[in-house]
Amino acid sequence: MMDVFANLWLGLGVSVEPMNLLYCFLGALIGTLIGVLPGLGPTATVALLLPITFYLPPVGALIMLAGIFYGAQYGGSTTAILVKLPGESSSVMTCLDGNAMARQGRGGVALATAALASLFAGIATTLVIAVAGPPLAGVALAFGPSEYVALMLVGLIGAVILAHGSVVKAVAMILIGLLLSMVGTDVNSGQMRFTFDIPQLYDGLDFVPLAMGLFGLADIIINLEETEGRGIEPSPIHRLWPSWQDFKDAWPAAVRGTALGAFLGILPGGGATLSAFSSYALEKKVARDPGAFGKGAIQGVAGPEAANNAGAQASFIPMLSLGIPSNAVMALMIGAMMIHGITPGPQIMTKQPDLFWGMIASMLVGNIMLVVLNLPLIGIWVRLLRVPYAYLFPAILVFCCIGTYSLRNDVFDVVMMAGFGLFGYVLKKLDCEPAPLLLGFVLGPLLEENLSRAMLLSHGDLGIFISRPISAGLMAVAAGLLALILLPAFRRQREVAFKE
Amino acid sequence: MTHTLRSPRPAAFRLRSPQDLAAGLLLAAIALGGLWLARNWEAGSLAMMQAGFFPRLVCYFLLASGLATMFRALTADAPAALAWAWRPSVAITVAVVAFAALLDKLGLVLAILALIGIGGLAGRPLRPGPFTALWATLATACVAIFSWGLGLPLQIWP
């Protein structure tokens, strides 16, 4: 135990060196400013800014990249709350209640809640990493294909809970998401699936045009329809900061979200996204008034925000200690480390303790810096909500289009976005919700790959899911959730809850 | 918006929710289309899944949920009419497609003009003065951020 603090102290010493502090600050600042732009999520931001860090010393470069990553993540939440544009999959849940709060004039409260929940999650997860990081990395190894399949089933069934209205339609949305995730070249056989001989589809669909279309464009159409072209009136801002009551409502959600995120983030693939979705479903499940969700429940912001930040940070554990990148950002980080001549893996802690602990301590410093940086900005962001809709929506259109274009410098993605916008509007008309679709889309490739791997290992025996303890446990949770959803009594309650 | 449960008294089969019927038809159509596209892909077996296995599995489930939704159209009430807002949906879609078509040919500044010009028709169009100001602001901001700041290879002028 003393070791941990000694190490953390060493790390803190490294990260508060003036130059490193400056890199951390610059990273968080640039990350936030670019992450705020719709379409540029953490992956795109880190990829864009990677070359800058080539000129820095190794420790400084990694600290700055980590800063860019947190900044971009938080910037993405800001856009999600203000204009309902999720720049990446883990901020989809923040959109729902965060934007609803912003429309009620509680945008400042939502932004502050997101910042504080992220800060709490960041600090808690950093301590978890410091105390139990290396042993925790073993969890990722204990997860075989069957465990992944079971975990994803839990996540997908959980996504049904978070949808309003019809259970069947929510399931159908997940299935459409899975179907969309198959577009492209099948990794195992090289078979082209659903590509219609369009070369741009050979690599599959990207999340950004899909999410921008389903949320951003469809939302503009719906807003204009509902107000007959006038657009939503900016509601007066009641208060900028969370009240004591808000604080009391939000903190248990943030704690639960952190726990979920710290655990799920360790697992490669979709960690931050899955934890944000699960946290939202959990909050809705434990809330006294589940009907308030989707209409500006503060727990619906605090939980997922804490979860996605904790998840994002926990994803450093397998990266640093095993050299396994759990998502695209971590793969970029490993690339950056390689360029500086560092090979991530078990030996990094013993060979380069200043780098390992410096980076972990910089997470602590970076999170605090992010809040210090962003709390004063809230006043400015909220003023953006006062812009009349006739000016705001063309601006959103422009940023959506350029953000999507910048992914691959291909206008094809922009056309895809237009198509998904129309599709999103159709879904809204049919009372289907797009959030479960996005989760299915994100988890689809992992689900397919692990399902086929699990079946290959067991020679087609489905019993593998209940013969291994972890996957059996997860399957039991999935079955429990399913029963909960299908029980008629519970269903009637749902109908009542959503009536008003 | 939400459905109420079916009342206990027996009702003849009549359409109570056109919304659910349309949703069910759409889902079933997507599922059948997926199955048709996947018709030549090898499915393999449970132990040796091939490229066609997962798409078919998902499509069958989707077909089932489509049929269930159609059945629901007979049992649960929902708004009778399906209103469709032509003006915003068409204007927004055409504006974005126009932007995509013009960007490589006429450059960013004119593509933005087309985007906000056509897109503006979705709501109540701005008067010429404010419109020009908005165009100038957005074009300047985009060039500054994306072209100069982030160094994206964007064509700015024709």
List the helices and strands and how they pair.
The complex is a heterodimer of chains A (500) and B (158).
Chain A: H1 2-15, H2 18-35, H3 42-49, H4 58-83, H5 92-142, H6 145-162, H7 167-181, E1 184-185, E2 192-193, H8 207-226, H9 244-264, H10 271-286, H11 299-314, H12 316-322, H13 328-339, H14 348-351, H15 353-384, H16 389-408, H17 411-429, H18 434-457, H19 464-467, H20 469-486, H21 488-497
Antiparallel strand pairs in A: 1-2
Helix pairs in contact in A: 1-15, 2-4, 2-15, 3-4, 4-5, 4-13, 4-15, 5-9, 5-11, 5-12, 5-15, 6-7, 6-10, 6-18, 6-20, 7-18, 8-16, 8-17, 8-18, 9-10, 9-11, 10-11, 16-17
Chain B: H1 18-37, H2 53-75, H3 86-106, H4 108-120, H5 128-149
Helix pairs in contact in B: 1-2, 3-4, 4-5
Radius of gyration of chain A: 22 Å
The number of distinct helices of chain B, counting runs of at least 4 residues, comes to 5
Low-pLDDT segments, ≥5 res of chain A? none
How far apart the termini of chain B lie comes to: 48 Å
Radius of gyration computed on alpha carbons of chain B:
24 Å
> Roughly what fraction of the amino acids of chain A lie in strands?
under 5%
Tell me the count of domains of chain A.
Answer: 1
- Structural class by SSE content of chain A: mainly alpha
Number of helices of chain A: 21
Name the overall outline of chain B.
Answer: flat
Assembly context of the chains: heterodimer
